[in-house]
Design a protein that fits this description.
Helix content: 40-55%
Number of helices: 9
Order of helices and strands: HEHHEHEEEEHHEEEEHHHEE
Length: about 325
């Protein structure tokens, strides 16, 4: 640390240290971000989402040098300013960052559970700071997200390489755009007024409520799609079998189209019943409750199915699975 009493000289030394740090390691940060992206994409693939767009790894960013300088100055208020690149790395953990966007709070929480489990295992990354769950404990500004900082070993880097992971819902991410949050961050041109602070916090609370309602809607749609709570009472079935083609599949349901282009859901309940009859569940090594639709129904499968109507919804109940070599 430097204790030079001349503020402008001290600031110049900090600026020089920031410049040296970026010249030495910024390319290594990009390499580390790409590694973290592959790690996170592996997590989303392991979750076997029916709709892959529900959780998306949304690329990476490297903090602008001027933002880093201003953040260092702000964090050093009342203290000696750093003058070496290594000191800056220890102060600023979000020089490089990767963002994960989730459609709803429920998706965020499911992803974070798996992420925590993966970070707890021995891996090529080290958790270098305690995680910060602003999703459950928002900042006074209204900011919500889950943060984790991973250390990535890199023999070519001159200083420790760290990547911050931010997991947000799409509405939490939109909050930053809607409130012009970048204008008020360290290095931004504005200081937040009381008006901005109050409005931003109110918007965050409103968007959080929308996230909650979206979760309720998603749960209802999922329950209807899986058919687990349906007992068949009130269903009507067309007389002739249809030939349907599967266009999407996942753990809880599949979507198919008939020859007229009409879309219908293939429920988990119907797949499990057919698996029980055909003993397909035993062949897949799963019992009836554990089996996933995507284990037995694949995109492109052409299946004979009965058309079932229930409460205005169209379902295709397969009577045979596609043969596989």
């Amino acid at each position: 640390m430097n204790t030079d009493p001349a503020p402008h000289l001290a600031r110049a030394r900090v600026r020089a240290a920031v410049d040296r740090l970026y010249q030495a390691d910024s390319q290594r940060w990009e390499v580390a971000c790409q590694r973290v992206i592959r790690f996170l994409e592996g997590i989303t693939e392991s979750m076997e989402l029916a709709d892959r767009s529900r959780i998306v790894v949304d690329g990476y960013r490297i903090k602008e040098p001027m933002r880093t300088l201003e953040k260092v100055l702000k964090k050093s208020e009342g203290q000696a300013l750093p003058s070496e690149p290594g000191e800056i790395v220890e102060m600023i953990s979000d020089l490089a960052g990767v963002k994960v966007l989730c459609k709803s709070s429920r998706d965020l929480e499911a992803f974070v559970d798996v992420l925590r489990a993966e970070m707890g295992r021995a891996s090529r990354f080290e958790v270098v700071e305690p995680v910060k769950n602003y999703h459950l404990d928002p900042k006074p500004s209204g900011y919500r997200a889950f943060h984790a900082v991973l250390g990535a070993e890199d023999s070519k880097a001159q200083h420790p390489v760290r990547v911050e992971i931010q997991v947000r819902t799409r509405l939490q991410d939109a909050w930053g755009e809607l409130t012009h949050d970048d204008l008020y961050k360290p290095g931004g041109p504005l200081s937040p007024s009381d008006f901005h602070t109050q409005v931003a916090a109110s918007m965050a609370n409103l968007l959080s409520e929308v996230d909650r309602l979206a979760d309720l809607l998603a749960q209802d749609i999922e329950q209807t799609s899986r058919g687990d709570a349906q007992d068949g009472e009130g269903e009507t079935q067309a007389g002739d079998l249809l030939r349907v083609t599967v266009t999407r599949t996942g753990p809880g349901y599949a979507i198919a189209e008939d020859e007229l282009g009409r879309r219908g859901l293939i429920r988990a309940r119907d797949v499990r019943l057919l698996a029980e009859v055909t003993r397909a569940a035993e062949k897949s090594g799963e019992n009836r409750k554990q089996i996933k639709v995507s284990d037995l129904v694949k995109v492109g499968d052409e299946l004979p199915a009965a058309e079932v109507e229930f409460k205005g919804n169209r379902y295709f109940a397969p009577v045979e699975f596609a043969e596989r070599g």
